[in-house]
Design a protein that fits this description.
alpha/beta, Ribosomal Protein S5, domain 2, 2 domains, five-stranded mixed sheet, 17 helices, 12% strand
Amino acid sequence: MRRGVLIALALAALAAVAVALSLAPLSPGEQLRVVGTYTINALAVSSSGGGAVVPIEVTLLTPGNGRAYVAGVPEAGEGFGPSAQIALYVASRLAGVSPSNYTALIRVKALQSSVGGPSASGYITAALFALMKGLPLRNDTAMTGIILPDGTIGWVGGVQYKVEAAAQNGIKYVLVPLGEQGEAAGVSGVEVIPIATIQQAIYYLTGYNVTSPYNASSLNPAVFDNVSRELYEEVLAIYENATGPSASQYANMSQIEALAASGQYYVAASLLYSSLVNYYDGLVSRGSASSSALYNEALSLAKEYESVVKKIPITSNNLGIIIGLYERIYQVYQEANSSSPDVGLMYARVVTLPPWIDAARELAYGRAVNESALADMAEAYLQYAYVMYSYVETTYGSQLPSQYVAQLDQSFGLAQSLYSAGHYLAALAASLDTIALSENLLAAP
């Protein structure tokens, strides 16, 4: 469930990022002005074991080119550049300005400590936002946490060691990702504050309450709510037509109806999909349906629907849904190529694609997203997927179960191959899947 929610949240943020990726270079003769510099208390895991506090200088320049540049990379860990770039995008969206107004300079002053690429990116985002808004940044607080494109603060490794290092260095407060505060339960001399979003981090670090919506879409919320309801109703009809009188055997219909009644259409539709997977798996296990027949039909439908999706105009309003469609289609392809394909999952996935296609068509208005913007966005998310992929593997390495390593390798490899082939929307979907998988692995006990 966590993986699905992460992907849904990231898809909702993509329309904003699509606009941000159209960057213009400096005009001839323009002079850069230093907006300001903050030195933040980043938390790291030292090369000899234990934690460390590592100062990172965050400088903002204007006018800029929308890029973030990092110095000190050999000591900073894998993927620092891409995570700093995402930090600049998120900070600018929250501040209500274009990232192309600024250039960010990040200087990592680590000596023998390793700041994992994305683990300081949440703190960097807050510092950049404070510089853009002219806000003071408190110096008695440290933070660790990954910034995700939708503004969520993601999990990191070594929380206990990092909090211990903060306490030893006289830091009073440490912000950690929600759900990881328990790792530092035994550390004294410092207050650990769990946060779920960058908005919360900004509030604790500056006292400023971010109220601007994190959304650049022109979509009317009432329209989106109506489309979501229609999507749920179509998925419900598909489920009831398939299962007939045994609908309640595979799904808690009372729970699903209650979720829909409260407006949680996406969650309700997701539960129906999961129940449909169980239904088709049951048919195969009982011999009531042919595994090979479902497999072949699922592949055929996936290819048919992929050709349909390619013809839908891409706009700021339906971009997230179209990427979600590609994520679902390529999940079918990946499952088909696995050593033991789940045909129930494959078939349930393709038969529930039409409602999503209808939603993408209905929302195909607003700002058009061109090929160049898609290519830039796909590259940015592929880089961020690499950051997450590298961070998980270098942090946990051999501790990860082999099946999870294989799944992560497959997802990231697919993202790379799709991007290289110029399939940018599909590459975005695979990159988001890699990010979500990495988040799940970081969250695992």
